[in-house]
Design a protein that fits this description.
The structure is a single chain. By secondary structure, the protein is mainly beta. The chain folds into two domains: about 90 residues, Immunoglobulin-like; about 120 residues, Immunoglobulin-like. Helix content is about 10%, strand content about 45%. It contains two helices and 18 strands. The strands form five sheets. Strands 11, 12, 13, 15 and 18 form a five-stranded antiparallel β-sheet that branches. Strands 1, 4, 7 and 8 form a four-stranded mixed β-sheet that branches. The protein has a four-stranded antiparallel β-sheet with strand order 3-2-5-6, with no helix packed on it. A hairpin with a 6-residue loop joins strand 2 and strand 3. The longest helix has 25 residues. It is elongated.
Length: about 250
């Protein structure tokens, strides 16, 4: 009887082991890599998309020697890419470099291909607009206290082909696209010269105070700016800026 009980226990344990192994073997393995793909649409420095999508280089900067180029439709693909987070750099001669940080590439059980699609990226050419004059015009703008500027830009813009510019402001005279306390939104002009500026409330919203001396520079910019925030520097980069401009001018915040 004792031997029978021992034999019975051995058989039961063996059966449980077989069932456990069977369940483990039948569990599908989770893939560790898949395709990452997207599309890039190119633009001129105005408001027109172009057919220049081929040959844009897309590089994964936090993975050594991993880059590809777009086809004629602006499509690119990284095949069998390990699931992880990636930083992308997009570049082409004549365009400002663009960067995208923290792209999550992960396994999606709903996708039979195990792919990650990146949202379409707009990629603009560098600005062709140069600033040929900039001067402080007065201490009000559009009937409000503030600062107004007179300017000229080249080539001469028209309502159908506007010029795009951006201001950089600082309390230091060496203000530039990499040394600034505030950067304006993109401003567009339909005339080669005119009056523009900021109200006091706008300047206070940028972080300046009444009575403070502020230096400002104007630069040609693109409609699609390729701007991005650079984490290790702590400020935005504006790759499409046209650096041909005039010296900074200063004013006192009203």
């Amino acid at each position: 009887m004792k031997n029978f009980v021992v034999l019975y226990l051995v058989v039961v344990l063996f059966g449980v082991s077989l069932i456990s192994c069977s369940k483990k073997d039948s569990t599908p393995s989770v893939p560790t890599s898949g395709n990452l793909f997207g599309t890039i649409q190119t633009w001129d420095d105005k408001t027109t998309s172009t057919n220049d999508m081929a040959g844009v280089t897309v590089t994964i900067t936090n993975l050594a020697n991993k880059s590809t180029t777009t086809d004629a439709q602006g499509r690119y693909t990284f095949t069998n890419l390990p699931y992880d987070q990636y930083d992308l750099e997009i570049s082409k001669t004549g365009y400002g470099t663009h960067k995208v940080f923290g792209v999550t590439h992960s396994y999606d059980p709903a996708s039979s291909l195990g792919t990650t699609q990146i949202p379409n990226i707009s990629f603009g050419k560098k600005s062709t607009t140069t600033v040929t004059a900039l001067a402080v015009n007065g201490n009000n703008v559009l009937g409000e206290p503030g600062v107004s500027f007179s300017y000229t830009v080249n080539p001469t813009p028209t309502p159908a082909s506007r010029a795009f510019v951006r201001y950089f402001l600082s309390t230091a005279a060496d203000v530039s696209p990499t040394k600034y306390l505030a950067a304006s939104a993109v401003v567009n002009f339909s005339n080669g010269s005119g009056i523009t500026g900021f109200s006091t409330s706008q300047l206070v919203g940028m972080g300046f105070t009444s009575g403070q001396t502020v230096y400002v520079k104007m630069f040609g910019e693109s409609f699609v700016t390729n701007e991005y925030y650079q984490p290790n520097l702590g400020y935005k980069i504006f790759p499409n800026i046209n650096l041909t401009t005039q010296p900074a001018v200063s004013f006192v915040v009203p």
